[in-house]
Amino acid sequence: MTQVLTRPLLEIKNLNVDYGLGDEAVHAVRDVSLTIHRGEVVGLAGESGSGKSTLAYGVTRLLPPPGVVAGGSVTYHPPTGEPFDVLSLSHAELRKFRWAETSIVFQGAMNSLNPVHKVDVQMMDAIKAHEPQLSKAARLDRAKEMLRLVGISEDRLDAYPHQLSGGMRQRVMIGMALALEPQLVIMDEPTTALDVVMQRQILGQLVELRERLGFSVLFITHDLSLLVEFSDRIAIMYGGRIVEEAPSADIYRDPLHPYSVGLLRSFPALRGDRRELTGIPGSPPDLRGMPSGCAFHPRCPKRFEPCDKEIPVLGKPDDHVGPARTVACWLHPVTAG
Amino acid sequence: ACGDSPNEKAKNSGAKTTVLTVGMPNGPLTENENPFLTTSAGAKDGYRWVVYEPLMMWNPVKPADPMKPWLATKAEWNKDYTSVKVTIRDNAEWSDGQKLTADDVAFTYKLVRDNEALNSGGVPITDATVSGADVTITFKSPQFVSQQKAIAQIPIVPKHVWEKVSDPKSEVNKNPIGSGPYTIKSFTPQTTTLVARDKGYWQALPQVKELRYTSYNDNNAQTTALANGECEWSFVFIPNVKTVFIDKDAANHKIWAPPVLGIHGLYINTTKAPFNDPKLRVAMGMVINRDDIFTTAEAGYFHPLVKSVTGLPSPAGDAYISDEYKGKDYKVDVEGAKTLLASAGYKLDGNTLKDPSGKPVTLTLTDPAGWSDYQTSLEIVKANLATIGINATVDKANQDAWFKNVEAGQFDAAFRWTEGGSTPYDIYRTVMDGDQLKPIGTASPAGNFGRFDSKDATAALRAYAAATDDAARKTALATLQKIFVEQAPMIPVGADNIGGAFSTKNWTGWPDDANPYGAAQPTQANALDVILHLKPSA
Amino acid sequence: MTATPSSIEQVIPGQGAMAQPDVTPAGKKAKRRRFRFIANGKATTGLVILAIYVLFAIIGPWVAPFDPDKITSDVLQAPSAKHWFGTSHLGQDIFSQILAGTRSVVMVGAIAGIVATVLSILVGVTAGYLGGVIDEILSVLSNVFLVIPGLLLIIIICTSLPRVNDLTVALVIGLTSWSWGSRVLRAQTLSLRQRDYVEASRATGEKTWRIIFFEILPNLTAIIASGFVGTVIFAVLSEITLAFIGISSVSSWNWGTILFWAQGQQALAQGAWWWFVPAGLAIAILGTALSLVNFGIDEFVSPRLRTSGHGPKRTSTGEKVRMKVGFTPVIRPVEPTGTIDMKDGATR
Amino acid sequence: MTLSESPAAPVGEVVLEAEGLTKHFPVRRKLSDIFTGKRAVVHAVDDVSLTLRRGRVTALVGESGSGKSTVARLFAQLYPRTAGDLRLHGETTKVHGGRRFRDYVSRVQLIFQDPFGSLNPVHTVRYHLTRALKIHGNAGKNAEELEAALAALLTRVAMTPPERYIDKFPHELSGGQRQRVAIARALGADPEALLADEPVSMLDVSIRLGILNLLRDLKERLNLAILYITHDIASARYFADETMVMYAGRMVEGGDSESVTQNPAHPYTRLLIESAPDPDRIAGIADATAKDRGNGEPPSLIRPPSGCRFHPRCPHAMKRCTVDLPPRLEVGGEPGHWAACWLYDAETVAKEGVGSAADPSIPTPPALHLPEEAR
Amino acid sequence: MRFLLQRLAFYLFTAWAAITINFFIPRMIPGDPISSFLARNQGAVSADAIQSLRVLFGLDQKQSLWQQYLDYWGQLFHGDLGLSFTFFPSTVSEVIGQSLPWTIGLVGITTVISFMVGTTLGIGAGWRRGTWIDGLLPATTFLSSIPYFWLGLVAIAVFTGPGSYFPSSGGYTPGLVPALDQYFIGSAINHSVLPAVTILLSSMSGWILGMRNMMVTVSAEDYITVAHAKGLSERRVAFSYAARNALLPNVSAFALSLGFIVGGTLLVEIVFSYPGVGFQLFQAVGAHDYPLMQGIFLVITISVLVANLLADVAYLLLDPRTRKAG
Ligand SMILES: Nc1ncnc2c1ncn2[C@@H]1O[C@H](COP(=O)(O)OP(=O)(O)OP(=O)(O)O)[C@@H](O)[C@H]1O
Ligand SMILES: Nc1ncnc2c1ncn2[C@@H]1O[C@H](COP(=O)(O)OP(=O)(O)OP(=O)(O)O)[C@@H](O)[C@H]1O
Ligand SMILES: [Mg+2]
Ligand SMILES: [Mg+2]
């Protein structure tokens, strides 16, 4: 997208996330830096197990045990006031911060709703926790409004989650995520369980809402074609690291990292010529025994001398003149500084 | 609001000296005051005998003593004891104010005659006729050996109440009208409270103004209540009675356990070789350590020692011991037993006794698992028998099966009781009655479990029961004792006791060795006599 | 693990299985799984104690210092160097009685556990897999057994048998206490039956009995195991209770018999605590050991109970970290600088 | 090992043929139904006709819940069918269990939708494959032959070297590897037809591709007839010779894959294709295509809409669509390409006019490329 | 609804089967009420009583088992449970009627308390895994592994005695008349403390454990993480989200355990001499009191079945997922 996106909203710097402690730790996210600007949709792609969800949850500190954030900082820039580090917040501060500033739509909305409470209770719960001064009626109004916003008739407030279809539940979750008008919405594969028709409906609504409300989105999926269509910028993860990051059109047209290339060559196109699908040979790395050097090198068709020795840094490649893109690959070396 | 609560008084009456707490380990009861039924609450707790009264008061501790006049001022038996003429006192009144008459007595006896279910003593009544204050009751057979059942254990009920009862055996009689000094104040499954009448009783009113009968669930609860002083009078087996009960309040906690004419001992199946040999049985009797059983299994009191070789306990049986056996007591005599056995052809081979045919003598002692005193006794018997080389094993049987097997004669040896009564007749009858002799496999519920086959004994039993004079009785009894001693159809160990555990903290006047005026057991027919003897302690 | 029993029939067999979630081990190593079970501290403690009991069950009667039946003159003695647990009213050595009684207890527990487990598998799994009329019939059957109060049924059966020995007691307990397990197994089987792999093996052409025994049963192992442990506890308690209330007429020693004698002689009221306490403790420790094993099984079945273990953990640098759902701990090796470099970022 | 690399049977021979296949699942009744005698059923599959040929892949696409898996299970005879005919080499078959069922499954094998669920977690790869071989008599005579057969199976699904995988438990394998084991298991029966129920839906793009290539390779080498079920229409285009589209339990369109995906005829197929993410359409999200189409909810299968089941969501719906069930109508120009839609009945269109009965809340559709005659 | 009807039919059938078994089992026991009567009165009752008892209990009339069975059902349909042998001629209904309230009062209330306390502790233990509250588990397990009678007897030995607040036996102070006044109720409560506490100690661990495991399971669910993500307060998440879901299986277990109240009290009542129905049943078994046994079995059967039905209904009510729309 062409708007000038300069004001950062969330700056992730050198984030490390581990599962487990000490020697048993699995380093699921390594040294990841990523900035999300106001009003921007950032896509996060990468194959299963590359650490996308871990990154998202790590930022919000919602990792399931034994996950621990093992380093780095996450700086949040509120619309007014001083920026602060999310990772240093106390539990109480964190509770206040959550949902009001950043909300999350989880992978699999099926399980995100409490099966024993009606939709209205769950929506109003969130509102009440953050705006306790609001009357019950006002809260109910807000809940209704949110449902309408996501295209569900307000009488469904009275329904239990199991009485809604998967798509409706997903929309309820999105509505709930927007109820407090947060600055950032993190969406973890919100549509993988749905079929394409439903997926498009929901994403369409989301885009529309974003234009109206102006929040930023961190959108996670491994479906690159979806991301290319929907996001402004895409970061591609492999083996716990971001290996490439660029505006989506650039990535689609001209992927730099061989892994990005492989990803793009893995899904069949519906329209146009039938192109050759090569895929990515080999299997994903084991997080416990990461290959030395570039984690992708054992599967990389273009690997050469330094790949298995040194880890390439993520940075603006010297050989590329376009704007704002970074890559971590020895094919596109980065000069420090 | 609680002013009219029935419990307020009970709680506030601090003056404890008017109340006597009595207990029995019967479990929760239901409101059933039918005085004839052993299943009634009154019978289980014993208070039927303070509401209803018999004609005469019999002292089981001294069974040969003459009975005390009670509702009858006198009882005269005919010579062969088939009929009795009783004179009813004229000052007795029912608790509803009506007078007690000879008609009531005759009615009661006919009621019992006509309803077999009410006749728990099995008294063969034929008729009861009234003439003035006298009632003549006639019986099918001589009642010498069961006089007490005939006139001291049938509660007299008011005709004007019971003639209206259509089915006396299923009458629960919730509002009992009796001639005794107490009436029921309240009934709960756990406790029945009785209060003394304030007028109309034919003799001096008791000093115990209120009786509380509590039914505890089991012996342990009962014992604990006794030890704690919650309960002042009961009849229960208390192991190690000194520590468990007496020492808790040595000054007041008392046990008095006089024996009656009913004994416990080891029945031996006399049909099984080699135990069909009387010598072997006698030898076994010689080595059993009754003192051990008495102190260890029976806590030193519960089944008083039977010392006399005739099996008759002292003092209840003293009067009946024949001259031949007077002063002859059991004592452990292992050497004597060995000699006796050797003379009869048995050989002691190392630790094993071999019978004349050369087979080792072994036997199984059985009793139901739950009867811990019997089980302990058997353990001791087992150890005792080992001293003469008899290898016994103890089998903890199932109660039902045990009953069936013992009655059917399918056992080697078992501890069991005999009937008890006013004469030694019941003891000997239970052990040796040829009329009860059934083939192995057929039940003989009334006795002779060991299948003891002696025509002489049977004849002597019949002669004793039907005798018309003391001399004949004495001869018959001597014969019975001789057979019992020489053939040892059963090895007596202890007697039934008719005593109880009580506390003198609040009440004195209990029967004791010095003044054995009655049985100290709350469920006996003479319980009322005991209560009437009680005085507040100083 | 259900119907957590109200009171006295303390252990309902299979109680431990109620709350068990899915049995599919989500991506955990199966082989290591087995060792993990052992590695579980609780389970190990339980197993070690059990092993000691089993050892005494085997050698107990031989190593007992005295003949447990032997009547001596050392009546009602407090524990001493000679009589470790004191003596009974007949001067019998209580320590020897406990040792001699272990065998019966362990045997009855094991046999009853096996019988009940086998029955519950037969009934529960069959009903769950086959469904339909067979299911209805078997369900009624197990419900009937559930409805009849177990301990009382056992009492009734034991009183009605002419001869009762350890084996009969064990069989009676086993035959009357399978219904809970069968219910749990049936419910599990019902859900397993709908698993794709069961359907898939059918589509491969497997026969019904093979599906039941080779596809479904192995997946129930953990539930079966904890049901077994539960039944064993129940059986031991029942056996002891039966002996205690004088129902079972076992001629050999078991701890219930000891308690029966102690109670019959009012050991506690007499102050002879040594007569009462050791047997009770022996039972309680055995029960606890079995429960510990059960915990082990539970935790090993449910990955969720397993993950993150207990209590605070330590990092390699020795910091204490408490895992908490919803609030991921942050451990940063270096304190982040207070100032944030605004120009630095991924957009460069 | 009897798996033959090049069977004699000619490519294109009909292996399995379904006609009017119907499956209704009974649903729990309400009390009122007991009295009225009504029997509620889920119309999971209605009147489906489908032919599987040797050496050809037939794709079945459709949204979630449209009945695709049910069709597969009906083909595998795991469910008894409510109505219709299923012919194996022209012979009607109806088997429940026992020998005849085993004979059937040795020729028609199903690969389950979920690679995580269809392998028993307690058994190794070896067990799964050995059973498949043994049941169908392909295990050879002795241990060596079995070992060889196992190795051959694994090699066939590109799990090499076999020793590395043979003794693994399912959870030790990646999703793609599990899916391969499931395929290998199906191949162990040496079937003629393979029913692959969404073999790739849960997998990652790169793994997905591997499996599809594998299936294609098997089709070519073993001359298998394959039913490929998916809701990813793009993969159908890539992989299948023929594509059928299902909607709410009915077939709505069919034809060779290229025509169906490039010239979708049925409005539902179009919706499906429009909805598929398309990287070439960058930033076009908020355009008309993304607009909510009707209420977007699939219809109830207990009380399916009358007439064409898609009519409540269809922007082109005509009156006739709400009443009459459309038959298979030839879509102009392309032989074998048909659609069950009244739009292709020139008469109806002429009489009623396209979209005459459409729900007004449905936004105007983009230009419709109807065949000439229909305009 | 259909589901309930189906369950009802199922339970009726189960009830029939159980009652039939209850009828036949006691009759399989060798022995008869009379020899049990003699056994209990070793020597104190003479053999002469045998005949009178035989007549009394109606055992002199021979009837085929089948005829007895038919008669039994006939009586049942008239609500007549017959006459007890032990308490002849009191009716079985009366015996049960006077003991049932005690059982329900003591064990019912303790079951409820045990469930509530156990569940609350379980919530704590599950929610704060690894804190001190986890240490409760081994302790309660140990207590629940002790045979109940042992615990009860030790409690009696330790806590009762002259001068102690706790009475050693019974349901109320002897001499009080059951009435709803302060004395009686106070006494009843006083008598129930020790049995209640021992029941609690030995039964609580099941609830704690069950609830804890469910809490642990549930707290890994996505919706809990979502609740945290929503910034809800700790309490709200713990109770309204986690515990509310974790409770479901335990509630039905609880309903089931209510059914075991009547049948499960045997030992408490023996040990504490509590006047309840379990002890009556125990006695009835010993006394071969068939009518009483059957009556109590009937009560147990019905209460377990009703509890089962309750469990079904409770689940239906508590878990919206099982409630079918419409
Ligand atoms: N509890 C855990 N313990 C150890 N490793 C874990 C744990 N949870 C996740 N991982 C590992 O962390 C890595 C990253 O997982 P994550 O869920 O972030 O992947 P993802 O990119 O979101 O994948 P997907 O697309 O499948 O959701 C994976 O390799 C996974 O195996
Ligand atoms: N056993 C069953 N009982 C009742 N209804 C069923 C059953 N199996 C499937 N259905 C219903 O039949 C319809 C078709 O289901 P099916 O599984 O065939 O769909 P699908 O196209 O495979 O969907 P997906 O893409 O999600 O796998 C659905 O509405 C489903 O709810
Ligand atoms: Mg993820
Ligand atoms: Mg499907």
List the helices and strands and how they pair.
The complex is a heteropentamer of chains A (337), B (538), C (348), D (375) and E (326).
Chain A: E1 8-19, E2 26-37, E3 41-45, H1 52-60, E4 67-76, E5 84-85, H2 91-97, E6 102-105, H3 119-130, H4 136-149, H5 166-178, E7 184-188, H6 196-213, E8 216-220, H7 224-230, E9 233-238, E10 241-247, H8 248-253, H9 258-264, E11 326-327
Parallel strand pairs in A: 3-8, 3-9, 6-7, 7-8
Antiparallel strand pairs in A: 1-2, 1-4, 4-5, 9-10, 10-11
Helix pairs in contact in A: 3-4, 4-5, 5-6
Chain B: H1 6-12, E1 19-24, H2 41-45, H3 48-51, E2 56-57, E3 68-69, E4 72-77, E5 83-88, H4 102-114, E6 125-131, E7 134-139, H5 147-151, H6 159-162, E8 182-187, E9 191-196, E10 210-215, H7 219-228, E11 233-234, H8 241-244, E12 253-256, E13 259-268, H9 278-287, H10 290-297, H11 334-343, E14 347-349, E15 352-354, E16 362-368, H12 372-386, E17 391-397, H13 399-407, E18 413-417, H14 425-432, H15 455-466, H16 470-487, E19 490-497, E20 500-503, E21 507-508, H17 527-533, E22 535-536
Parallel strand pairs in B: 1-10, 1-11, 16-17, 16-18
Antiparallel strand pairs in B: 2-3, 4-5, 5-7, 6-7, 8-9, 9-10, 11-20, 12-20, 13-18, 13-19, 14-15, 21-22
Helix pairs in contact in B: 9-11, 10-12, 14-15, 15-16
Chain D: E1 14-26, H1 31-36, E2 41-53, E3 57-62, H2 68-75, E4 83-88, E5 91-92, H3 98-107, E6 108-111, H4 125-135, H5 143-156, H6 162-166, H7 175-188, E7 193-197, H8 205-222, E8 225-230, H9 233-239, E9 242-247, E10 250-256, H10 257-262, H11 267-275, H12 319-323, E11 329-330, E12 338-339, H13 346-352
Parallel strand pairs in D: 3-8, 3-9, 6-7, 7-8
Antiparallel strand pairs in D: 1-2, 1-4, 4-5, 9-10, 10-12, 11-12
The complex binds adenosine-5'-triphosphate (2 copies) and magnesium ion (MG) (2 copies).
